[in-house]
Amino acid sequence: MDIPFEDLSGTFSVGDIAAALALSFVLSSIIGWIYRATHRNVSYSQSYVQTLVILGMLISLIMLVVGSNIARAFALVGALSVVRFRNAIKETRDVGFIFLVMGVGMACGTRFYTLAVVAAVSISLIIVVMYRFNWFALNVQRQVVKVQVPPDADHTGDISDVLLRLTSEFELVSMESIRGGALTELMYTVRLKKGTEPGELIAALSERTYGQRVSVLTGYDQTDL
Hints:
The chain is an alpha+beta fold.
């Protein structure tokens, strides 16, 4: 019984493969370095940046395989639909970089080389400019205040008195029972008055919490909670 064997690699040359993969690697690496240089938060992950480079090359390979064949495209969608990603993306900005390397990889895989280069360079420059000049920043520094109090009475009034004296604005975010009901934890977002230090706020609140824990988290807008 003869089993027909057909190699479809002839639809593109070795040069096409090398060019697509090499260009997607270079552009994805540039995007990875841009991500590393403009990252602000404390959750930087080397494996995430390496994944960006791999993803760009992988998308380029997939586009070479799919080509203009609709049947292959639908088969690919069905195969990828079984993949489940468990890791949560900590920043919405990270999602943008994923889509950027995917777009570059698609352009390289479909042999739109000029489009891939122009798009990668242009968008990378925009990212650098937004980082350099701190676009859309809200110059209002807020703090998160966590206060633990005994559950036997309502202590929000005493805490509010301190916050009214030392902060220009505050808001109660959550109230929950902790340690099996032994304590109540109150969480506020506050904006300290000019000249007020976090230590001063902690000292004032500690006088109203009967020796229970008080913590102030500053700069939480740039910190991963």
